[in-house]
Amino acid sequence: MAEITRYVNTASTAGGDGTSNSTTGGTRAYASLDEACDSEAADLVTAGDNLVILCSGSTSDSIFADFTNAAWVTSDTNDVFIKPNTGEEHSGVWNTGIYRLTSGLNNTTIDHLTLERLQITEDATLSNAHVLRYSSGLDVGVQVVRQCLIKIDHSDAEQAGHGINMQDSSPDYHISNNIVYISDSSSHTAVRNGLNMAGGSGKYIVYNNTIAGAWSIGIRTNGTDHVKNNILDGATTCIDGTVGSRNTEQYNAASDATVSGTGSRTNQTFTYEAGADNYLLTSSDAGAKDFGEDLSSDTHLQITDDIVGVTRTGTWDIGAFEVTAAAAAGKGPLINSGLINNGLINSGLT
Fold first, then answer.
1. Are strands 193-197 and 164-166 parallel, antiparallel or unpaired?
2. Contacts of residue 118, Cβ cutoff 8 Å, sequence gap at least 6
3. Is the pTM value of this prediction over 0.85?
4. Cα(119)–Cα(116) distance, integer angstroms
5. Average model confidence (pLDDT) for the chain?
């Protein structure tokens, strides 16, 4: 089995073959994620390949990612993995200096697709535009969204859409360690749901996410779902859905009284780090810190780290971010100290 690596760089121009991260020449990076996924569409199963797409750029990728090329054939072991290039990962707070997808994921027919550590927002001028939209066209498979920043940031008074709209029931959805939020600067008449489980027969595993802002519903449950360790902060209704659909709901913390199940916490107030659009817990938080369940041996989805790759140890925190020992000592999390984004850790200097 071969692992194929391709590059996207927003400083490049269309027409390269994506085999390098250069912005010039025939091997230059693809100019957008949409170009990469359309150009690389293939039967990965017959070829025995995995495709990894690494994304770079200090300007936004503003082209709709619409991965609907019929040539895609994937499997559990022959899949597509999209993430930032090494050293260009976000540190848990939106960063306009690194790669970000600003027109969302409009649709996909890639049945086995992982999105990791990406910054994604929707088209700011469209009414009801969802940040990630999984609609009809998927077959069996797994859609993974982990360690991403998923932001509603409307620039006009139109109604905003869902953070993640999971409309197709065919795949399994693994949604973990994401911050799904409404930007402080967003302008809209109304907003819909943070996580919308629209497919009644879908299987949804939703672990350790932070869903913040004035969503209509924080998590709308449906189908076969397992909802654990999530912060739901500020929605009109933090969790809601079809009666009887909540197969496992536990260790969630909400700003209202709608969560239930073992270990869940109602009517909580959460304490985040200072700054706009920052939903990283502080060591003084009393709503979610040290109230989570260890999911490292979970039956449905085993996770061991948080949104910025820090290993969760001891008593887990609810939500996407695990307060580290350094943060508890008042030093702030290492991941946000600038060392990683300045390249010192990746260069071997510590």
1. parallel
2. 55, 82, 83, 84, 99, 100, 101, 148, 149
3. yes
4. 9
5. 91
